[in-house]
Amino acid sequence: MSETIQPKATIVIFGATGDLANRKLYPSIYRLYKSGKLDENFAVIGLARRGWDNDVIREKVEQSIQGLVDEDEDVSEFTSHFYYKSFDVTSTDSYNELKFMVESLEREYHTEGNRLFYLAMAPDFFGTIANQLKDHGLKETSGWTRLVIEKPFGHDLPSAKKLNQELQAAFSENQIYRIDHYLGKEMVQNIEVIRFANGIFEHLWNNQFINNIQVTSSETLGVEERAHYYDKSGATRDMIQNHMLQMVALLAMEPPINLSTEEIRSEKIKVLRALRTIEADKVSNYFVRGQYGPGEIDGEKVIGYQEEADALKDSATETFVAGKLVIDNYRWAGVPFYIRTGKRMKEKSTKIVVEFKDIPMNLYHKKDDLRNPNLLVINIQPNEGITLHLNAKKTGNGNLTEPIQLAYHQDAASGINTPEAYEKLLYDSMIGDATNFTHWDEVALSWEFVDRILANWSNEKPDFPNYASGSMGPKASDDLLEKDGFHWWPE
Ligand SMILES: NC(=O)C1=CN([C@@H]2O[C@H](COP(=O)(O)OP(=O)(O)OC[C@H]3O[C@@H](n4cnc5c(N)ncnc54)[C@H](OP(=O)(O)O)[C@@H]3O)[C@@H](O)[C@H]2O)C=CC1
Ligand SMILES: O=C1O[C@H](COP(=O)(O)O)[C@@H](O)[C@H](O)[C@H]1O
């Protein structure tokens, strides 16, 4: 049995009073601590402008993990590892004090000089922080130094390039960990294993046996408190450029020669390079967009996007996108990859459906009966598992068939709650495993792809809203598949 590596590190969180730190980072650090992946050799320094102190951050951390602790559990030993410093990232004076604080905690917690700088702040600050860390000698240490960057990584290719240049002036590519939290999800990580550890799938994983692949990530939530960010982003930048294209890359890549970070990334990059460029006047043949209007979700009436905030009135921002991707290589020629994502849809769910080619003729149905092609469904969330849809004999006399499903549920099999995506990614960044983080080349290729679509859309005024909250998006999304003779699989 392999031993769990217990990384030693000082974790510096920029944006420690924010939503991400509170909802994701503190609970993840706690889960790592509770599961023994972090022992006593760690300290966390929270930074933000607010006038908190060590007591306040410890109290906030305790509140943020409330749902995870056992009754009567004393979490004071855990929270005692947290420190806070009121800090304006734009003020150069603060960084000298930060250096002093980091060095003194390193001595106290024997973290061997390992430093993880987590930028849980608006991206406008990323370049400044990285350069200040370098200029103030915070990278000079006997241990490792890593920079974890939150999304969005730019707004388009030129801004992403500029940001990358700023970061690379201070940190090398192998020190930069760009978060795509979908890559931390258990079943997204399972895509490779399902494909490359199962002969029955990998031999069929090509254009001879697969009709199309569908990736759906639907949300029931609207923009909530993030209207300011979201209205400038939209679903294409928010979900397609990163999470959706990353899932497609994992589904379409060739088997890597080994499981090293470099080899896996190199195969994913080849997929992104093989994505067919969509010509400006053909965008509507491949991509459709939508924006939610009022509707009903789980029996509750909800308002439309444009009513969510005054600033959103008449907004042309897309809250839904569906697209057809064509991968121009030997394996995938002729196999469309359909993707769709949106807010305020019928259900919160992320799943992948692989539709296999049907048998040449069906002995068991009258010719005008519907056939049931075999499907492999990879359920990413909320349920984690895989389901294989087959046909079997209908019990009793006769030659009728009925669809059956072979299902595997992750939690039922492992008997444990799977780790949160952020928990895994935090751990990976501390042990130096960058496999599930995005390389700059992936970011750049993804922006190049979506920029063309966005440029085309920016020239046309869409007729929004065009789908009701609680639906599965606009009709155009169904039409996109229908014209190829397919439909979105509901399950
Ligand atoms: N929240 C989420 O679920 C997700 C967030 N992200 C990304 O994570 C990042 C953070 O998001 P989120 O936590 O939601 O944002 P918030 O707005 O909730 O938090 C921003 C943080 O930055 C701090 N801050 C702002 N200006 C300064 C400054 N000049 N100096 C020091 N600290 C400053 C704020 O604290 P104070 O006001 O006290 O200074 C606060 O702690 C963003 O890049 C976002 O896109 C990505 C995916 C999901
Ligand atoms: O990155 C983002 O992802 C979330 C959806 O993540 P999930 O893990 O809940 O599927 C999305 O709501 C958000 O707008 C986007 O920024």
UniProtKB/TrEMBL annotation:
Catalytic activity: D-glucose 6-phosphate + NADP(+) = 6-phospho-D-glucono-1,5-lactone + NADPH + H(+)
Active site: H243 (proton acceptor)
Domain Glucose-6-phosphate dehydrogenase C-terminal residue range list: 193-489
Top-level taxon of the source organism: Bacteria
InterPro entries from the UniProt entry: G6P_DH, G6P_DH_AS, G6P_DH_C, G6P_DH_NAD-bd, NAD(P)-bd_dom_sf
Residues annotated for NADP(+) binding in this entry: R49, D88, V89, K151
Pathway: Carbohydrate degradation; pentose phosphate pathway; D-ribulose 5-phosphate from D-glucose 6-phosphate (oxidative stage): step 1/3
Gene Ontology molecular function, alphabetical: glucose-6-phosphate dehydrogenase activity
The entry's keywords: Carbohydrate metabolism, Glucose metabolism, NADP, Oxidoreductase
Protein's UniProt keywords contain NADP: yes
Start and end residues of each Glucose-6-phosphate dehydrogenase NAD-binding domain: 12-190
Pfam families documented for this protein: G6PD_C (PF02781), G6PD_N (PF00479)
Binding site for substrate: H181, K185, E219, D238, K343, K348
EC number: 1.1.1.49
PANTHER family documented for this protein: GLUCOSE-6-PHOSPHATE 1-DEHYDROGENASE (PTHR23429:SF0), GLUCOSE-6-PHOSPHATE 1-DEHYDROGENASE G6PD (PTHR23429)
Its biological purpose: Catalyzes the oxidation of glucose 6-phosphate to 6-phosphogluconolactone.
Stated family: Belongs to the glucose-6-phosphate dehydrogenase family.
Protein's name according to its UniProt entry: Glucose-6-phosphate 1-dehydrogenase
